[in-house]
User: Fold these one by one.
Assistant:
Number 1:
Amino acid sequence: MIISFDKITQPINQELKQLNINLKKMVAAEHPILYAAAEQLFSAGGKRIRPIMILLIAKITNDQQNISPEHKRLAEITEIIHTASLVHDDIIDDCETRRGTVTVHNMFNNKIAVLAGDFLFAQSSWYLANLNNLHVVKVISKVITDFAEGEVQQGIKSFDKTISIESYLEKSFYKTASLIACSCKASTILNNCNPNIQNDFYRYGKHLGLAFQIIDDILDIISLSKDLGKPAGADLKNGNLTAPLIFAIEEKPELNQLINQEFQNKEDINKAIKIIKKTKAIQKAKDLAEEHIQLALNIINTRYTNYNIISLIKISYYILNRIK
């Protein structure tokens, strides 16, 4: 099923246009370098998956299908938090490009990039506090601690060939799925939904987020750098052992030697990618992603009938179908 991204966003097109305008205003900084760093991030674009989900869920869980100013601000806050996490990720992983453009720490330096990331986290926290909803503040604030937990787990497990799929999924939750899950839940909180509905959309976001990360990790193996917008094989280079490699080790134990050598040169990475592609690992990883997509869809399909559910279903398949 080919899913057009424009069709997914059709119910919230106007809100998304305004979101892109507002993001640049929200990260305005007095220091020109800090402002340039922040502007570089948002000029690079991105699909705005998290804001889209917040806005769609706002419509689904509201009898009038309205999107309140608070929901619009929450959508902006989550995109700022996500972007801040990417800045810090790029420093840790020493990525040269992100979304096809030079990363902040390469355009400026590590110190400026760290400060830019911190600045974005601080700005998001300030806007979050101004929502005047303590429950939402608690839910979204937890995400920032989860990011740190995910990075620590990833660092500890670097080049650890004994990592299990369970540990990989736990780390993926902290690094990716937590923000999506908590954003979905926060959207329902702003509509004063009951705890059951809040929990439903939290679980929907969690499974969707895990699928998103698994697909991302597959793309790191099978895509070209120009399509990824960042160097291919970056996960291998940084010792971040993901689902495709974990599954491939089961079939091709010779990968252990390359991991032990920590992929010392580019040829090692290319060799590992070729080996992985010869196994069933890519399909197994895709099956795992599809399993989480189905879990997400089962939650909303069985309980909600609003027409905007169609867009959430489409976004689920869009995430899965990023693999051509």
Note: The mean pLDDT is 87.
Number 2:
Amino acid sequence: MLVNMGIGLIMPITTLYIHNVLHMSLVVAGYTLLLFSGAMALGNLIGGQLFDKWRSKPLMYISAIIIVIALFLLTLYPYWPIYPILLMLYGAGLGILNASINSYLAFLQKYDANIFNNGYWAANIGMGLATFLSGIFFSINIQLVFGSSALLFLLALFIIKSQFASIDALRSSGTENSFHKTLHMHTIGYISLLSLTMIIIWVCYEQWNSNVSVLMTNNGISVKKYSILFTIGTIEIVALQPFIVRLFPETFNGDKLRVILGVLTFALSYLLIINTNDYWRFVLGITFVSIGEILALTAIPSLLNHYANDTNRGTIQAIGSLSGSIGRALGPLLGGFMITSFSFDTTFLSIFIIHLILVVFLLLLRDFKPKY
């Protein structure tokens, strides 16, 4: 929750700060965010690999310290041209910390099958609180945004130091030599399918974060009403997730069913906003998106973890996270190209069909456990 609050305080105001305060173009702001995303993705991969090959808690300490140093310097010197450099440093540390915490959760899942659900729920509470506070803090002083975020990561570091148990001595004593050698070919195929699922989900989800705003304003719906959609979505996730996840058994087949139903729910959200200028249709659409998140995005890490062992959990979780990052990076670009080339309705109908095709492939997932 604290990590996501640290992210949520900074990211919503980044473009606004670069363009309106630092007086850089939107193109420069876009490139800055691209560099941040690239640094975070690289940090994610590094974090996953180091979690598997090194010690877990020191990795979290180092990444959290990198983040706090970057944010502390941003608090003191939030100016160009050091701003994008420090933002990249923050992104790299954030990627490593996210990967190591996700990998830690993956290791603990053998003791608590519901841990990914709880983590996702807490993360949404943190993100919802932070996005609400972000604009308020920014209106006072940008340095308050960076300073508050640094304090949140310091608190997270304190919790890691005082409450996280070391798992290094508990890892399996297997003798696998490399990532590819430890996995059966069927398992690699299933991991690839789940990674592709993450890419497709996020490429399409990003339409809600970017191009849907254009569609709504073109149809006379205000920007304020568009922003309210995400407040509604966050409230729905926090309120509904504890009840929805209890409807499914904590088994492989239960997680598989959740992913399939989640993808179908995502698909319906795009069908709902075809050929409409009614606000209630967009509200219903974001509700379906929220349910899709609860079902699919909490179950995919659990399914990925099912195909892992204690020597590669970090790497496999990092691949899943990286797939989501790739989807988020490509989403606005691919969506903009489709909408410009065809239309909003054709784009959303295509997204609906792609999700249906994806479901057919997800039905092929099997509870295959290789012998190590």
Note: The chain has 15 helices and no strands.
Number 3:
Amino acid sequence: MDALVMCGGRGTRLTADVEKPLYEIAGVPMVDAVITALEESNIERTVAVVSPHTPETARHLDSLPHIETPGEGYVEDLGYALSRVSKPVLTVAADLPLLTGEVLNAILDAYDGDSLTVCVPAALKSRLGVSADLTFDHEGQAVAPTGVNIVAPSDSETMYLAADPRLAVNVNRPTDAQIAEAWR
């Protein structure tokens, strides 16, 4: 299975002097930490999904195949990228600096042919002190998407729920970055 690394966003909530994927946690650009996790996993090929908002990231990742999106927003850019690859495909946000190959392999092992939405309990994000911009109810529990999914060729969808801090720490704000630094 291939992977798309979503690294084309503006990162306005982070208020950093660098493009969000290049923001360093423990001295490592977040996108590099994600790519290392993908390299340590059973993923066959990684494709960087960039936009006009992330030219430095595109240059930084010049050794990877790229898809350049119009940069109209995460959902729009994801749809654009998905229309250019075969499925199933793993999608990963570039703001998950704690991600590991082990975590990704567990997700890949859970794949059964249906699209897989990877979530964590909202209570875990709260306990860690990281932001949760979107939560929804799943079987009576508030959950938050992680930025990792498997998109299948079929329309069927399954939830993968993991109480793993390595999936819960998306760096969207300066406080999230501080928490990620403490875990790294």
Note: The mean pLDDT is 95.
Number 4:
Amino acid sequence: MFTDSHCHLNFPELREQLPAILDAMAAARVGRALCICTTMEEFDEVHALARDHAHLWATVGVHPDNEDVREPSLQDLLDGAARPKVVGIGETGLDYYRLGERTLADMAWQR
């Protein structure tokens, strides 16, 4: 059995295909998946996926690349993390593929 540790099944282009995606996951022996929250505005939807499907779990958080979204307070994150089937705080936004020509070594000066 496999686990998908980072998916966005609530994104519109995937949500519309959810039954087929869940069937494909089962066929590929993906027995668990972690639905990642990228904005507080979508958290209820991400959490509902986890609540509604025994093999899905959720996180609460905001991707740092998102602009014009509600910034969560520490209490927002703690309250979300306390909900059933929420197993993490994040989207952490470690999307280094977006750096283009820059490398992680180039970023060392930022520490």
Note: Strands lie at 2-7, 30-35, 56-60, 86-89.
